[in-house]
Amino acid sequence: MTELIKLTAAELADKIHSREVSAVEVTQAHLDRIAEVDDHIHAFLHVDTEGALAAAKKVDEGIAEGNAPASPLAGVPLALKDVLTTEGVPTTCGSKTLEGWLPPYDATVTRKLREAGVVILGKTNMDEFAMGSSTENSAYGPTHNPWDHARIPGGSGGGSSASIAAFEAAIAIGTDTGGSIRQPGSVTGTVGVKPTYGGVSRYGLVAFSSSLDQAGPCARTVLDAALLHEVIAGYDPRDSTSIDAPVPPVVAAAREGANGDLKGVKVGVVKEFGGDGYQPGVLRSFQAAVEQLRALGAEVVEVSCPHFVYALPAYYLIAPSECSSNLARFDAMRYGLRVADDGTHSAEEVMSLTREKGFGAEVKRRIMLGTYALSSGYYDAYYGSAQKVRTLITRDFDAAFEQVDVLVSPTTPTTAFKIGERVDDPMAMYLADLCTIPSNLAGNAAMSVPSGLSDEDGLPVGLQIMAPALADDRLYRVGAAYEAARDAAAGGALIHKVPELGGTK
């Protein structure tokens, strides 16, 4: 493995900006790594070799001319989840419905990355339309966890997290509707952050559930995630849910936290997360992480959020209802897949046959759930009631944050499960997001940071940190402090302990 791809994004940027190494060299090293291992991992759906090298060359030329880098991450290679539009580059959302579609515009996140000089290597694999917890629902085949190729990398953004865990990219972008950044981060030993809802523009993010979807950073370190967060965040008038407020000082908080002092920080352990259904090794790792926070000077107390136990059923009414509405746009009339277009079928028949062929089983399941929940006579009983539960969960968070600065829990109840193990059991699959969903329903900020390896199976475990809306900087301070202490105790960064890849799937 070339030494360049082992460096953090911050380290790569320093070397590129000081002309110790060129952005083209760094990009080529990552493209070579993709060529070497992605047959085993399948993190990417599309690799834009020509576009990536052209973007890297532009960064090098600007630096050679004496211009200041466009951002602290200029020249750093990134993997982009295939749910964000990229002008002239395929965007499939992991679905046959959009196979071959070349968007005519960039998502705001994509545009901001380009303007910052970040090099987009390509588009990563995902559960179809972001519906899943394992990346097995992709129409293009599953992604494999770099720690164990027989296991899932999480979902829906398993491709993004796997790409950085496998050193195919330095940083990545994911999206999080019910845990799709944090849960993959947990099971691949990487950092994943769901910013405050509205903190990052959703313009050009192909919608699954509009009141829950949020793009965010994936990285191997907390500082790298903070640097990427700062690039993509900010108000966007093209997104009606975008928050017109300053971006929280996430980079400064990450640098402060790395000093390892959490004196004056009050941490709440969520009482409702733990016990039956949680892997013992995950709980032991979590308890060790809590003790580490206490050793860093934090005050740790137990906090009850009684309505969190209703988050999962509420989510699986709200998200499918919004999915049912959003996916109605794929009507085979304007773009995307179209079948039975032979002049003998009505428009309604073409729509029906196209959706039958284009959507996978999980997408169909959620569309049917949502359509039923929104139907006449059932709206108040299902969707309306779920929104009331959402309000109660938000109030639980508000009450908790009156007592503490951040909340913590395991990110997911288990380590990575085997590919195929849960595909026929939707409820078992949905339980992977048990701890992450409340933050999506409330819209507050949350992070998963690696908390070591399970003593049962040697696989990564994640510590979830949750903060109030627009207090994203608290995540980075606490996460960076914990990360520094964890690495010091382990004698090195966790992610560097991933074994070399090779062999067959």
Automatic annotation (TrEMBL):
Keywords, comma-separated and alphabetical: ATP-binding, Ligase, Nucleotide-binding, Protein biosynthesis
Catalytic activity: L-glutamyl-tRNA(Gln) + L-glutamine + ATP + H2O = L-glutaminyl-tRNA(Gln) + L-glutamate + ADP + phosphate + H(+)
Gene3D superfamilies xrefs: Amidase signature (AS) domain (3.90.1300.10)
InterPro entries: Amidase, Amidase_CS, Amidase_dom, AS_sf, GatA
Catalytic site positions: 81, 156, 180
UniProt key word ATP-binding: yes
Pfam families attached to this UniProt entry: Amidase
EC category name: ligase
Transmembrane regions: none
Superkingdom of the organism of origin: Bacteria
NCBIfam families, per database record: gatA
Record text on subunit structure and interactions: Heterotrimer of A, B and C subunits.
Role played: Allows the formation of correctly charged Gln-tRNA(Gln) through the transamidation of misacylated Glu-tRNA(Gln) in organisms which lack glutaminyl-tRNA synthetase. The reaction takes place in the presence of glutamine and ATP through an activated gamma-phospho-Glu-tRNA(Gln).
Annotated protein name in UniProt: Glutamyl-tRNA(Gln) amidotransferase subunit A
Record lineage: Bacteria, Bacillati, Actinomycetota, Actinomycetes, Pseudonocardiales
Gene: gatA
